[in-house]
Amino acid sequence: MTTSTDTLPITRVPRTGLPARAVVVGDPGRAAAVADLLSDAKEVSYHREYRVFTGSWQGTDVVVASHGVGAPGAILLFQELAEAGVNTLIRLGTAGAIRPGIRDGDLVIADAAVRDDGVTQQLIPAEYPAFSAPEAVLALQRAARAAEAPYHRGVVWTRAAFQPGFLPLPGEAYAAAGIAAIEMELSALYVFASTHGLTAGGALVVDGANADELVDTEATGGYDPHRNVVAEGVERGARITLDALRLLASAER
Predict the structure, then answer these.
(1) SS3 249
(2) Strand intervals (E) in 48-106
(3) How far apart are CA 148 and CA 142, in angstroms?
(4) How far is residue 253's CA from residue 248's CA, in Å, rounded to a whole number?
């Protein structure tokens, strides 16, 4: 019988024994969908927004876990996965495109992230960068090429607020600087991983142009992440992310 002393307090994952490599996603339902791609998948915990599975992808043992919406809650998952034995994490998420030429369903492989996440500013000075492990970027790129998937590399903007408010935003400046996309959790993963000696990467599926004042609502009909082109991109992105973890495991061996 499992007791509270056998599990970590926030996510309720086992304190030890998880595989070393993990896919992290926002939606618990997406975690289940990714887990369905695995061999011998097993749900090991489901508490609050944190749903966690283990299984195998082409001979590589992996974790699939959800972290909910927003960086403050997500970083709690990253912390407890690391405590339980995970040392490599790739976030598979969705994002709004900012850079021209990035289409719905395309994959953005994030080299780095703007730290507007609402939590890491309370953990480390703002000058500290949020960056992917280079080997994770290269593994994702190799997997995307093998899948013949449309992908882009670049810096993404991690922003805590999903909806626009009353403050002026640097969206136009970020667009001019070539920022690829906007999302809500990745910079927290990058900062946590680099400050704890972990390997992290990010693969984001574009679900629309969603950078507040950059959105042309009349042209797009508003934000709709539930279209087939997005679902197809997410499934493709899941396989690419799992392949990237397999490639990282092979390189370590």
Answers:
(1) helix
(2) 50-57, 60-66, 88-97
(3) 10
(4) 9
